[in-house]
Amino acid sequence: MSNMNLYDTIPNNVNLSDDKKLKRALEKWLPDFQSWWMDMGPEGFQANDVYLRTAIDVDPKGWAHFDHVKMPDYRWGIFLAAQEKDRKIGFGDHMGKPVWQEVPGEYRGMLRRLIVTQADTEPASVEQQRLLGQTCPSLYDLRNLFQVNVEEGRHLWAMVYLLHGYFGRDGREEAEALLARRSGNPDKPRILGAFNEPIEDWLSFFMFTMFTDRDGKYQLLALAESGFDPLSRTTRFMLTEEAHHMFVGETGVGRVVERTAQLMKEGNDDVRKAGGVDLPLIQKYLNLWFTLSLDLFGGEVSSNAADFFASGLKGRQKEDRLDEHTALDQYYNLNVFRDGKRTMEEVPLRNALNEVLRDSYVDDCQRGVDRWNKTLEEHGINFELKLPHRSFHRHIGEFANVHFDPEGNFLSDEEWDKRKDEFLPSEEDKVFVKSLMHAVREPGKIANWIAPPKRGINGQPFEFEYVRLS
Amino acid sequence: MSTTVSAHEPVNFQTHPDRYHHWKLSIDGDRANLVLDIQEDKPFRGDYLLKLNSYDLGVDIELADAIDRLRFEHPEVKVVVLSSGKDRVFSAGANIRMLGQSDHGFKINFCKFTNETRLAMEDASKHSNLRFLAALNGITAGGGYELALACDDLVLVDDDNSAVSLPEVPLLGVLPGTGGLTRVVDKRKVRRDLADIFCTLSEGVKGKRAVDWGLVDAIAPRSKFEDVVNERTENLKSQVKERSGKGIEWSPVTFTEDGPSRTYEYVTLKCDLEERTATITIQGPGTDAPASAADFREKGVNSWALRAFRELDNALLHLRFNMPECGLILIKTHGVNANVLAVDNFLNDNRDDWYVNEVLTYQARVLRRLDLMAKSIFALIEPRSCFAGCLFELALAADRSYLLDDDNEDRDKAPEVALGPLNAGTYPMTHCLSRLEVRYSGDQSKVDELIKQGTFDPQDAEDAGLVTFVLDDIDYEDEVRVAIEERASLSPDALTGMEASLRFPGSENCDSKIFGRLSAWQNWIFFRPNAVGEKGALKLYGQPTRPEFDWKRT
């Protein structure tokens, strides 16, 4: 279908060879990206062959091509979903007008900020996860980690293409800055707080891909609606890749839950002693990562969100399934904290769009948690994992600077300090989880604290040598 | 939509560090730390939240108080480091919702007061051996950057994210109203085309480019930020002279109230709401002029030279914020010329003493506040008055003066007016010219000659052009009454514009452009539908709908 140039220096389906200026700009950025990848990408595995999925086309047949490749040779590239003919802006003040193929001048700053903020998370997560390979529970998981990493790298390419292609000199500078910031570096931190915390154990990695990458999915869904067509097309294709990341997260946590259930069924009263992760501890990790991810949606009442929507740059997910697309003269009933009480307040819908997106996200997360609980039920274990109330452990928005327990009950600062280790991983908990992290690198073997997957990758068995370590 | 702020408690401009909500002032040897850590749920009035270290009048009243205290109470301080108590945010500037909720008059007075406070910082740097360093640890937007612009040295954290910005034009459809535009080009000498880009770029400029363009003086990575701030603080210290000896206690100005009228020790303010006038009478000093600088400082806030001017300042701010309908100020004095001149001479002879210098620059600031009143000013020079030296500046500041030439031996001696050494340039107006220079269009020899002459009887004063009208007792009362009634009947807007245009002849400088050019345009924009109409940018900021502009240029 598409004009795929897979074997160019920069694989692409945007006719890069016809756009000499853009090609030159991207080729200049390429070595910087490569050296960033060598410095900040997965530590210690750059020379190994990894069974990776590479996109070779953007239609369903083409985006899942599997082969052993070395990560630095991965075909990073620029792939946009096919252009829809006569696409119109689907929401906001410009609704019904043709989508923009070039950046509208009046929204240039806003649009660039949106893209840079999204782009910054892509390399950030690679940096956060760079040491995880040292403690993989199996080759299968190691491969999944690397798949996630290379795709985050490709997502960076997708965003950098937009910056280079549509934002001139400023865009090029922003693209350079994306490689200059470093997760957790106090001098050059990544833009969003949650992307500056290192991910040092695999339970956190699975939680991250389950919850934090799912925020990414919802941001991409909202950007896929954009009236700026190149952004919409880019993000639509990114979404197909993002789905795998959530698969890694959801099944990863699911397999930990399953292993814990097995250990309990085997009569281990103390799961920790048996080398597993006890369910209350899983709940604490869930509490932590779910809430960090909730913050990524931004404040409940946001003038930026209203502006992004009004100007047609960022919509609601699946805008076409809604009946009304201006979001004017409508109100949203928002959970707020006033005078020591949680209560409801009416907010103009446009200002509440962060919360609208967060609602869909919470529902989606709940579906994953339900599947984990089903596993527990199947093992006859009477324990339910729960998403904490959205007022719990928040650092942004209405509930920042105030404390609540996971049920949403208000806690004084004193009570919170006393009880927070009941809700969130304590230092002791983290030390314990770390103590479980020992690399298992033989094909077909797996760490004790996690169950093997039901299926391998691309029809291969679990024993398959997903990463060739020799 | 929230209600417009209009009916409310009078604004009180007095506070104390113990009562600050938003600033933390601490003294560390010869360095003062002034930390902006705004309590978002403590707005001055109204129901907006002061998010992201954004400020309102309450925050600025505290700042003004802190600056005065640093000048008078803490001579040991050489450098003031302004920083933020919030992580990654210096300040997002004036609170937009506050502006949205405020009526036009409050907005204008708010901007004027904040401008005066920033000028007071620059004045302290120029005249008081104090230097200001702005430690910009994160977002520094709009009024936040304008506050930094009033400092001598700006250090911005270099984290690839933190920027300085003036986003008012692109985001709010108004101007950065606290001197930002003017200081960028006039003070920091940012090239005007780069300034044009900067002022239309809502995200601002960060890192090396901010230094290259002259928007900040230095950048430093987060891990070295403190070190660089400390190093540059030491460097600033080395540029200033010691202010030896102890400071005074900056205790509050006290007064009794009778409705809108106030009685202070040396000043009385009488508001006539019917006539829409305010009469300010200043009692001159007694015969007890200070004997020495040490004696003068010992008296602290109770010396006439300081107390009378603090009281006048308080009365002027009260008139501005709380008495918008009083459109005409009548200024009178009461006392003996020789006593005023004795104080003046003492101050002039001891001006090398830091404290005497502080008092003189304070008087100068109060007189500039008077020049900037959006009210008509008439000086009424009557028998037993003391329009001499520093107090004659009041007559010079007035739009006109009426002298009652009533030389009747049975009653009082006709009033004389007198010039002293301080009239020669100790009290510059906003545009840096003395009021006498302005009165005689820069004719320095005329000014010198008049100061030499010293005292003027009514006829001399009229001949010299020092007063507007000299009237005998038959005409005075009626002439003044008619003038007051006539003045009170004219359009208040036109009068404000006219007076602001006539009061400042001569060349402009950065400060006067802020109050003239910048404020005038801002005040116009504040009234335009493109800003405050139902679809105006300021009105709709933070609302679900985007502004719609009337594209016609005016």
Describe what you observe in this structure.
Chain A: Its EC number is 1.14.13.208. Chain A: This is Benzoyl-CoA 2,3-epoxidase subunit BoxB. The complex is a heterodimer of chains A (470) and B (554). Chain A has 470 residues and is mostly helical. Chain A has a single domain (16-468), classed as Orthogonal Bundle (Ribonucleotide Reductase, subunit A). Helix content of chain A is 46%, strand content 7%. Chain A has 11 helices and 7 strands. Chain A has helices at 20-40, 108-128, 139-166, 168-180, 202-224, 229-265, 279-295, 303-310, 353-378, 413-423, 427-436, and strands spanning 49-54, 65-70, 331-338, 341-348, 403-404, 410-411, 467-468. In chain A, the strands form 3 sheets. A 3-stranded antiparallel beta sheet of chain A has the order 2-1-7. A two-stranded antiparallel ribbon of chain A has the order 3-4. In chain A, a hairpin with a 5-residue loop joins strand 5 and strand 6. Chain A starts with 19 loop residues before the first helix and ends with a strand. Chain B is an alpha/beta fold. Chain B has 2 domains: 17-237, 2-enoyl-CoA Hydratase, Chain A, domain 1 (Alpha-Beta Complex), CATH 3.90.226; 256-502, 2-enoyl-CoA Hydratase, Chain A, domain 1 (Alpha-Beta Complex). In chain B, 41% of the residues lie in helices and 17% in strands. Chain B has 22 helices and 22 strands. In chain B, the strands form 5 sheets. Chain B has an 8-stranded mixed beta sheet with strand order 13-14-15-16-17-18-19-22, with helices on both faces. Chain B has a 6-stranded mixed beta sheet with strand order 1-2-4-7-9-12, sandwiched between helices. A 4-stranded mixed beta sheet of chain B has the order 5-8-10-11. In chain B, strand 15 and strand 16 (277-283) form a beta hairpin. In chain B, helix 3 packs antiparallel against helix 13, helix 3 (104-127) runs antiparallel to helix 20 and helix 11 runs parallel beside helix 13 (354-371). The radius of gyration of chain B is 24 Å and the shape is globular. The two termini of chain B are 30 Å apart. Mean pLDDT of chain B is 93; it is low at 1-6. The interface between A and B is medium-sized, with 22 and 18 residues.
